[in-house]
Amino acid sequence: MADLPTGMPIQLEPLVIRVLAPNASAYTYTGTQSYVVGGAGDVAVIDPGPDDGGHLAALERAIDGRPVRAIMITHHHRDHSPLARRLSAATAAPIVGAAPFAPGDHGSRADAAFDADYAPDRVLAEGDTVGGDGWTLTALATPGHTSAHLCFALAETRALFSGDHVMGWATSVVSPPDGDMGAYMASLDKLMGRDDRVFYPGHGEAVENPRRLVRGMLGHRKQREGQILRLLREDGQAIPAMVGRMYAGLDTLLLPAAERSVLAHLYDLANRGLVAQEGETWRIAA
């Protein structure tokens, strides 16, 4: 894990400052990266991160007294959205962005990753914009990592804030029921059709050649799909056994995420009529 300074505003380009939150982990890499977007006038803050007083103070230093036009959220996970409430109280800025998690849409399953208190003042849809003095951010619907995930495109510099849809250190976790592999792949295809100059992800370094990375991510997922189908052609398989063969040597802390990813692939394959489930066992569809 890279040794990067937390709480230090880093100017990435004239309209973009990055501030790293102190929440490094096996799932967040060096931590969540918050962004302050704007010049000498007003600004937007993208993904203020976990509810941490030190990170709030760091964001306030980066804002440096400028009016905050909006606090923008790519998705409703606890490492991205909780600090929005305290930042909104401090700046009077509205919270806008991804739709909140709706537990009723997912049966009785509770997911510890979700920010249950996230309640945006405005939900953004594809093409909705938030603008200020010399900057414009446009919402791009990229479901997959979560059902309501958004990216934000900065028109003035062709930068894309990619949240957890495309990260700078690893592929995104796609965990059903809110995560959907079919939607995730379609969202990657969507990004392939764009001409963004750089991606600024929620975790990891800036992506200087976005289309090359996205092409590699699509290939990686298709390779995993092929592995699953080859295993199932041998015999019926339960997910833990499949993960043991597909992810040899993986850190045990990451095994649950790998199992969720394989499940997401299996659901997608089942939706396409290629595999079927029998209890805990998955097989090639008859």
Structural description of this entry:
InterPro entries: LACTB2_WH, Metallo-B-lactamas, RibonucZ/Hydroxyglut_hydro, Sec-metab_biosynth-thioest, WH-like_DNA-bd_sf. By secondary structure, the chain is an alpha/beta fold. The protein folds into 2 domains: 199 residues, Ribonuclease Z/Hydroxyacylglutathione hydrolase-like (Metallo-beta-lactamase, Chain A), CATH 3.60.15.10; 67 residues, Arc Repressor Mutant, subunit A (Orthogonal Bundle), CATH 1.10.10.10. The strands form 3 sheets. It has a 7-stranded mixed beta sheet with strand order 1-2-3-4-5-6-7, covered by helices on one side. Strands 8-9-10-11-12 form a 5-stranded mixed beta sheet, with no helix packed on it. It is elongated, with a radius of gyration of 19 Å. About 2% of the residues have low confidence.
Shape: elongated
Average pLDDT, rounded to a whole number, is 93
Task: Kindly identify the CATH topology of the largest domain.
Answer: Metallo-beta-lactamase, Chain A
Give helix and strand order, one letter per element, not per position: EEEEHEHEEEEEEHEHEHHEE
- CATH class of the largest domain, named Alpha Beta
Rg over CA atoms, rounded to whole Å, is 19 Å
- Spans of at least 5 consecutive residues whose pLDDT stays below 50 are 105-110
Number of helices: 6
Number of strands: 15
The percent range for helix content is 25-40%
Assign the CATH superfamily of the largest domain: Ribonuclease Z/Hydroxyacylglutathione hydrolase-like
Spatial gap, N to C terminus? 45 Å
Task: Give the neighbour order of strands across the main sheet.
Answer: 1-2-3-4-5-6-7
**Largest sheet properties:** 7 strands, mixed
How big a fraction of the residues is strand? Answer: 15-25%
Structural class: alpha/beta
At CATH's second level, what is the architecture of the largest domain? 4-Layer Sandwich
